[in-house]
Design brief:
The protein is α+β, with helices and mostly antiparallel strands and 317 residues long. The protein contains 7 helices and 16 strands. It has 3 domains: 140 residues, no CATH class; 30 residues, no CATH class; 132 residues, Alpha-Beta Complex (Nucleoside Triphosphate Pyrophosphohydrolase), CATH 3.90.79. The radius of gyration is 22 Å and the shape is globular.
Amino acid sequence: MPRSLTQHLPLSRYRIDRDHAARDRPQLFDELAADPDARIVALWRGEVLLTTARDAATAPALALLPWASAPAEALRIYLGRTLEAEGGVPAGAAITAVVLDDESGPALEADVTRWASPRTLGHRLGDRDAGLAIEALGLANWHDTHRFSPRTGNPTVAAKAGWVRVDVETGAELFPRTDAAVIVGITDADDRLVLGSNALWESNRFSLLAGFVEPGESLEAAVVREVFEESGLRVIDAEYVGSQPWPFPASLMLGFRARLDPAHANDLRPDGAEILDLRWFSRDELAASLGEILLPGRTSIARAIIEDWFGGSLDAP
């Protein structure tokens, strides 16, 4: 069985007790408003507030602010309690995400260099802060896309500490959802890795092939289908290697390795819609190409799978 990469993935780290039972307490937010140890994580436009301005030389940290720092009417989502003391926040402190609008965000902090996206900065955050940022962003994105019930079209309101939305007319409860997506490191008989360039990226950015799992489909079947659709390659022996949340906006990335099926011709055939270019790389070829091509960012599971195949860290941003 292949070793799991999950524990090494930047956005899979977590050092918080989600304290799920507290979500059912109707007066939870009133209790936290009176708790001097309670803290908030501020979100604005998909970014989190840091303690200081972004600095390439200094490890970033979330600004965990007093409860009253944000407007009372802002959407609040209970994230859980800290497991140990860190950065001036005691163990057991309750942490709540607060989603700010275009008026309250700049009012809280006008310095845009203190707001940052976990997508690009997540690998530099500590274990506690990485987990808090990803939990907060995933739930905030879900709230933003479920202001109306998909069943009735009626408005919905947040309930149960931000973990449920309720249809205001029918009372039906809606719960957070995550979209499953597979991402695959494909190798051939010579142990070369195939990388593709997506139509939405810069022309010289290359990554692994990936796609969403369809209804009624196993993860392994999704690997085979997505790879063939995007590249014309037939693969076998799909093996799970780890998972990472990717709330940009609402995915769970399920990492796999797979081998080229020797029973097929397997000519590279980019689909022309999502994938515009495909290339095979040996380890030496990939290392020699780093000045020419861009790799996925260090926060992504794609980068982890590529470097695991490569056998070490690649000298690229």
